[in-house]
Structure formats: structure tokens, C-alpha cells
Design goal:
The protein is an alpha/beta fold and 224 residues long. The chain contains eight helices and nine strands. The protein has helices at residues 9-23, 67-80, 108-119, 134-146, 165-180, 189-202, 205-211, 216-223; strands at residues 32-38, 85-91, 94-95, 121-123, 128-129, 132-133, 154-157, 163-164, 185-187.
Length: 224
């Protein structure tokens, strides 16, 4: 089950402690507070209302959902009330950046690919994606940190160009075939998850570690 808001309370408290520490400093009026939030802080925002505004929305119902996004929303509200020159960057899914596009191997997409190679199948994921390269995120944050202007209370760092998961599925399957010589069958998500269950039960500990980690089953089944 996804973590609840209460499980993120220590992180929210730590954010408040940082705010208090900065406000107590002799140069607090010249300081900048940059918070890496998440698009999930608006996880219940109705799409019918259009794009989420780059401001602090005071209606907490828009953050109702898993604790990670709700916790980010609470932290945004704390920072906005601090009186500091601060901004919250609502960041979307960060992907590999220039020059080689390498991902953090603990992210869900590398885990998805490694698990799919072990299963010799790839899930037919539906929906849209809007990944943003890490170097683009970095440049935006550095620009805000080095600017002399008053910061906006929030900034949405997302890729405005959407693509379908069908395109991602085809690209990743093709890349695995091209670079590793491994053919992956495209299968329904339910069938793929069932394959994980069978694999995790029958595989040895060393095999699980090689695919993802000793927590292969819990990571994948909890997510998917």
C-alpha cells in the first residue's frame, strides 16, 4: 500500500526546521529557499480545470491521495507562509539527461526494463507520459538560485510535450532487441504482473538481486 501522510511527518518537520533555521539567520532577508516539490502535490487536481496554476493553491483537497504528494503539498504551504524568498519546484518525472540519457537505476523505468528482460515480456502500459531530462531540471533550478529577482511562490517543471505510452512501449522493446538481442513480447499488464509473482516465488535470491534487488517482489507488485 502507498505510504500515508503521517509516515512523511518527519520529513515535513525537517522542512519546517530548515525554514526556522533560515529565518533566524542574520541574512535571512537575502536568502533563497528552493524546495524540490512534485507534481503529485496536485494529485487530485481536476483536469477539467485546466493547467495547475504556478501559485500556492490553498484548497487541500487537491492533494488528497498517497502520502508522498500530500506531504509535498503540506511542505509547500509551510514554505509559502515563511516570509522567505522561496519557491517550490513541482517536478514531473525526471528521466536521463544529456549526453547519454542514463537513468538512476533505482527509478521505476530501469526496474521495469530489467524485470521485463527477466520475464521476456513487456507490459502494455496505457496513458501518456511527459518525462523531463535531468539536465533541464538542473538548469531551471540553478537559474532560479542565481537570479536577483523575487522568486515566484511555485514553478511547474514538466515537459509540455506529451507522448503516448504506446510509443514508449515500442521504443523500449525495440531498444532491448537492438542493444541486447532480447525479444520481449508485449503482454497485458495483468499478465505481466502475474509473471512477476511466479518469477519472484521460483527464482533464487541471487537471481532476484541480479534483476532488481532482494525486494524485487515488493517493489514491483506494490507499484504496479
Amino acid at each position: 500500500m502507498p505510504a500515508t501522510l503521517s509516515e512523511f511527518e518527519p520529513h515535513i518537520q525537517a522542512t519546517r526546521h530548515l525554514v526556522d533555521f533560515l529565518r533566524a539567520g542574520a541574512h535571512s532577508s537575502h536568502a533563497r529557499f528552493l524546495f524540490t516539490s512534485s507534481v503529485t502535490s496536485a494529485q487530485s487536481w481536476p483536469l477539467t480545470r485546466g493547467p495547475y496554476p504556478e501559485e500556492i493553491v490553498t484548497d487541500p483537497s487537491i492533494a488528497v491521495g498517497p502520502g508522498y504528494g500530500a506531504g509535498k503539498y503540506v511542505a509547500e504551504r509551510i514554505i509559502a507562509k515563511s516570509g522567505l524568498n522561496a519557491t517550490s519546484f513541482r517536478i514531473g518525472q525526471i528521466c536521463g539527461g544529456a549526453p547519454q540519457g542514463a537513468w538512476d537505476t533505482t527509478e521505476w523505468t530501469p526496474i521495469l526494463v530489467k524485470t521485463s528482460i527477466a520475464l521476456r515480456s513487456f507490459p502494455d502500459i496505457k496513458g501518456i507520459i511527459s518525462w523531463i531530462p535531468m539536465d533541464v531540471v538542473e538548469a531551471a533550478i540553478v537559474e532560479a538560485a542565481s537570479s536577483n529577482e523575487l522568486l515566484s511562490p511555485a514553478a511547474n517543471l514538466v515537459n509540455p510535450h506529451l507522448t503516448s505510452c504506446d510509443n514508449m512501449n515500442a521504443y523500449l522493446i525495440g531498444a532491448v532487441k537492438k542493444f541486447l538481442g532480447v525479444h520481449l513480447d508485449l503482454v497485458p499488464m495483468r499478465q505481466w504482473v502475474s509473471g512477476i509473482e511466479r518469477f519472484a516465488v521460483n527464482a533464487s535470491a541471487d537471481t532476484l538481486k541480479d534483476v532488481v534487488s532482494y525486494n524485487c517482489k515488493s517493489i514491483n507488485l506494490a507499484f504496479y
